[in-house]
Every structure is written in structure tokens, then in C-alpha cells.
């Protein structure tokens, strides 16, 4: 014991560089993590009794968005295809928020949580119509619609029941139809908001001028990564187009990217990430450079709740503000996308 205390007394941290090196490494890691984590939603606005629908919210980013909006008092509907997972997500959100509320003041804990799961399979336009019909019949209005569900690296070789390439239908066409069907209810809200979740990957999209929706040979011709990029560019372009069409109404339409998010099912079909050793090897890098699902949800929560955005429409957001569309020359495709809009609303 005496020996140990004399060693500690005589220890001179400046005799070696190791403590400094360790401190610098920790500092770099903390800085990278806080930069890569993006911004938190800058407000804590309550959205009491506002009705919010979030597609694909049984897991990942969508789940975190649903939880955040329910915590702010919203009436939240999880629109999901896997009802078992969706019911579990609802139960978890209620349990967590009830626990949090019971630690707060009495008035808060008296507020009854409204969180529900509804069936919606975006692979089928019929399912979208059924879902929309039920919402229109059961709710007096819709205040927030977050088109979050998405797939990547799904098989491009076969088509949905409606005859479309899967990425295109799930990520774009079905959301587009859903939005159009819900517009009458969104217009009943004093501040209706549509938020489309896109991706940085839109920048690498290939668009065929003769077949912009790739209804022809696209499915068999291209890699799933390209199909994803194409669908997310379509989301972006239709955001602008719909915002133009809704100008002068109480409804805004914006688009956001969650950034690169780890810990979700997004890459579950990725050929690379299915190898266990790759998962293990990339884990530290993903932890360092990617967001967690909570961080990935912040931008959509900001778009759904911030008062200052009430007149902003047709923009593409990262976590720190509106971004101009990089591919202005592609805006020529608006007219073609509007043709789909006519199809969707007929
Ligand atoms: N993670 C990233 O790095 C990243 C980057 C850029 C953009 N994004 C976008 O962010 C959004 C959320 O992604 P995430 O990372 O949270 O991925 P995720 O965990 O895979 O969540 C996607 C959600 O979409 C649902 N979904 C898939 N197909 C559906 C269908 N046919 N009908 C209804 N719901 C369906 C999934 O339900 P199941 O559980 O039933 O499959 C799941 O709940 C997606 O639009 C994605 O493209 C993510």
C-alpha cells in the first residue's frame, strides 16, 4: 500500500506524452461525433392534438419521429405494413412517454397519449387508397403527413402488383398518391404540413428523358442503388411541383434528408452489409461518422413543428437550413411528374 501511494505521489503526468495523446484522441472523437450527429431540433414547441401520420414508423428514423411528435402532444398515427412491429412500437412509445410524464408535473401526466398503428403497405396502391379512405372517414383533418418509409437494395427484377419497380413505388409513387388523397384533409388544418424524406443519394440519380418514371425497362436494366437514387430524386422534384400547386393554400410541402443513419434496417438488404465480418469491421466507423436514429429524426421533427417555417414550401432541408436544389436543369421533369399527379388523383 505504501509503495502504491509513493508511486502515485511521485507520478509526473508530464514525464510522458501518453496522457496528452489520449486526451487529443478523445477530443477528436468527441468533436467528430458531435459534428456528425447534426443539429438537434431547435425548438420544443408543443403540437397538442395536432394529427400526425408517419409512414414506416415501426422502426428506425420513423419510430423516433413518431415518438418525438407524441411527446409534444400530437395525435400520432403510425402507418406501417408490419402490424406486429407497429403495435410493439406503439406500446413502447406509450410506456416510455408515460414513464417520462409521471416524473413531470401533474398537468402533463394527465394528458392522454394518442398513439395508434394503422395498416399501410406502400407496395400496393389499393392499400394506400384503403388507408386514406379510413383516415378521411375517421379523422376531422390531418395536420402533419411525414412520408418517411423507404427501401433500398430491394430486388429490382420483379414488379409490384401495380406493375411498377419496387423502389419507385414504395419510396415515391405510393407516397405521392397518399399525399394527394389526403390533401382535402390537410387543407382543413390551419397549418398543414407534408414532409417527404429523401436522401443525398438523389444526386447520383440517372433520369431517362423518354421514360422519366422508368416505367419501361428500368427495373431490369439498373442496379438497386440507382433505383433508390432515382426514386429519391423523384421525391425531391415532386416536392417542388406540389408546393407550386399548393401555393396560396394553408398547406406546405418540404423535403429533408436524415443524413447517414446507423442502427436502422435501411441497409438490411445491402450485399456488403450482409457479411458479418464487414458489419464488425465497419461498426466503429459507422458509430463515429453516422447519426443514430434519434439524430436522423431531428430534421423531420423540426419541419413538422417549427413556427418559423409556416410559409416555407418546396425546399430541401438538411439539419441546418434550406438547401437550393442542385439540379435545376432537371426541373423540366415537373410537367411529366404532374402527369402522374393527375393519374394519382383521378
Ligand atoms: N438510414 C440512412 O442512412 C438513410 C439515409 C438516407 C435516407 N434515408 C431514408 O430515411 C427513411 C427512413 O429510413 P430508416 O433508416 O429509418 O430505415 P428503416 O429502419 O428500414 O425504416 C424504413 C421503414 O419503412 C417501412 N417500409 C418499407 N417498405 C414498406 C412498405 N411497402 N409499406 C410500408 N412501410 C414500408 C419499413 O417497414 P418494415 O419494418 O416493415 O420493413 C420501416 O418501418 C427512408 O425513407 C430512407 O430511404 C435513410
TrEMBL record:
Keywords of the record: Membrane, Oxidoreductase, Transmembrane, Transmembrane helix
Q: Taxonomically, which superkingdom?
A: Eukaryota
- Matching SUPFAM superfamilies: NAD(P)-binding Rossmann-fold domains
Transmembrane domains' residue ranges: 16-36
Q: Write the signal peptide boundaries.
A: none
Which family, according to UniProt? Answer: Belongs to the short-chain dehydrogenases/reductases (SDR) family.
Q: Which PANTHER family match?
A: PHOSPHATIDYLINOSITOL-GLYCAN BIOSYNTHESIS CLASS F PROTEIN, PHOSPHATIDYLINOSITOL-GLYCAN BIOSYNTHESIS CLASS F PROTEIN-RELATED
Instruction: Report what the protein is called.
Output: Uncharacterized protein
**Which source organism?**
Glossina brevipalpis
Amino acid at each position: 500500500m505504501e509503495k502504491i501511494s509513493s508511486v502515485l505521489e511521485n507520478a509526473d503526468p508530464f514525464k510522458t506524452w501518453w496522457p496528452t495523446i489520449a486526451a487529443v484522441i478523445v477530443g477528436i472523437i468527441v468533436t467528430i461525433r458531435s459534428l456528425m450527429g447534426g443539429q438537434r431540433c431547435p425548438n420544443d414547441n408543443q403540437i397538442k392534438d395536432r394529427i400526425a401520420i408517419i409512414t414506416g414508423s415501426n422502426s428506425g428514423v420513423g419510430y423516433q419521429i413518431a415518438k418525438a411528435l407524441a411527446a409534444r402532444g400530437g395525435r400520432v398515427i403510425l402507418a406501417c405494413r408490419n402490424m406486429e412491429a407497429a403495435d410493439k412500437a406503439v406500446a413502447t412509445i406509450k410506456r416510455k412517454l408515460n414513464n417520462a410524464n409521471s416524473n413531470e408535473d401533474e398537468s402533463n401526466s394527465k394528458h392522454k397519449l394518442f398513439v395508434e398503428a394503422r395498416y399501410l403497405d406502400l407496395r400496393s396502391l389499393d392499400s394506400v387508397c384503403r388507408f386514406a379512405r379510413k383516415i378521411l372517414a375517421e379523422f376531422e383533418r390531418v395536420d402533419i403527413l411525414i412520408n418517411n418509409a423507404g427501401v433500398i437494395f430491394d430486388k429490382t427484377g420483379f414488379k409490384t402488383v401495380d406493375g411498377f419497380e419496387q423502389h419507385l413505388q414504395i419510396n415515391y409513387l405510393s407516397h405521392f398518391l397518399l399525399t394527394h388523397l389526403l390533401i382535402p384533409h390537410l387543407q382543413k388544418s390551419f397549418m398543414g404540413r407534408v414532409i417527404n424524406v429523401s436522401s443525398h443519394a438523389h444526386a447520383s440519380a440517372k433520369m431517362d428523358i423518354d421514360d422519366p418514371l422508368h416505367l419501361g425497362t428500368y427495373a431490369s436494366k439498373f442496379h438497386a442503388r440507382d433505383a433508390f437514387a432515382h426514386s429519391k430524386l423523384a421525391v425531391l422534384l415532386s416536392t417542388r411541383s406540389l408546393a407550386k400547386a399548393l401555393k396560396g393554400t394553408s398547406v406546405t410541402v418540404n423535403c429533408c434528408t436524415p443524413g447517414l443513419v446507423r442502427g436502422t434496417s435501411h441497409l438490411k438488404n445491402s450485399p456488403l452489409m450482409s457479411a458479418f465480418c464487414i458489419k464488425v469491421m465497419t461498426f466503429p466507423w459507422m458509430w463515429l461518422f453516422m447519426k443514430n436514429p434519434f439524430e436522423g429524426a431531428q430534421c423531420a421533427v423540426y419541419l413538422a413543428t417549427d413556427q418559423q417555417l409556416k410559409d416555407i414550401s418546396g425546399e430541401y432541408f438538411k439539419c441546418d437550413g434550406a438547401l437550393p436544389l442542385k439540379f435545376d436543369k432537371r426541373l423540366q421533369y415537373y410537367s411529366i411528374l404532374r402527369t402522374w399527379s393527375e393519374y394519382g388523383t383521378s
